[in-house]
Amino acid sequence: MIEVRRLRVLRALADHGTVTAAAEVLHLTPSAVSQQLAALESEVGQELLERRGRRVAITSAGRLLLAHADTILAEVERAEDAMRLHANGVNGEVRITAFATAITLLVAPALTRLRETTPGLSLVVRDAEGHQGITQLLDGDADLAIAVEHRGSPRPDDHRLARIPLYAEPFVAVLPPAHPAAEPPGPTAPIELAALAEDDWVMPSPGNPIRDVVMLACEQAGFQPRIVHQSDDFRAVAALVAAGAGVSLVPRLAVPEPTLALIRPLPDPAPTRRVYAAVRASRADHPLITATLGVLTEVAEKL
């Protein structure tokens, strides 16, 4: 008989690539992970893994088992939810991860509203960059993630996830007050991105999906930005720009107010940050999650 907990170990290894990384996610030792995988191979009577240097590759038999494992783990989670609901009605906790702007614009207003509409729901909020929340969701460390579409996002056909679009916002140019773009035709006139090719840039850190969007926009405008300063905090970005350290592109709703920096729109089609909510498909119909998603969608429609 296949042990369900060992299927979780195999899934964690497939997602994270190494025994050490899987062990960290599962809060086990690497040796315990290796023992669980060896026991799973013994249970199914086939090799599921092969060593490739420091990494472990999944064999064809392992990939076949993973396809069934995702279904099994989803059904186990549904069964656990059903038992919790039977015992507690609709009372419970929803763990939500979101990046800072989404916490301010979406999660905090939704939390206030949910206290009125769903008093049995307790929201637990964790700050996570847009690319980290999905990992935490798939690892089981969160029940709902608010994330940003980017080149490294999970594929739309990933059957483990259900996605709900929330809002899209254009990027704007953030410039020092004395920048030449501050001159006529005026602060509301669009500025061509190519006009910033010779400036120093303030950019998010590598791995941040916002950086990917900005880098792609600059490439399409025909230049590679000269990155001098880096920060993932948009307040810090705006402060550095206002101090004359360089220029930047920032999602419009993330621009701190007030700011001494000059804000200029970009011509259409401007690069856009697309924000969505994601839940594990196995929990998409959970009453507390559907209630949370409903209020988040209502708040997003007003942005």
TrEMBL record:
Family annotation (Pfam families): HTH_1 (PF00126), LysR_substrate (PF03466)
Start and end residues of each HTH lysR-type domain: 2-59
Keyword Transit peptide part of the UniProt annotation: no
Domain of life: Bacteria
Keywords, ordered alphabetically: DNA-binding, Transcription, Transcription regulation
SUPFAM superfamilies, alphabetized: Periplasmic binding protein-like II, Winged helix' DNA-binding domain
Gene3D superfamilies in UniProt: Periplasmic binding protein-like II (3.40.190.10), Winged helix-like DNA-binding domain superfamily/Winged helix DNA-binding domain (1.10.10.10)
Family: Belongs to the LysR transcriptional regulatory family.
Protein name per Swiss-Prot or TrEMBL: LysR family transcriptional regulator
Native organism: Kribbella hippodromi
Upper classification of the organism: Bacteria, Bacillati, Actinomycetota, Actinomycetes, Propionibacteriales
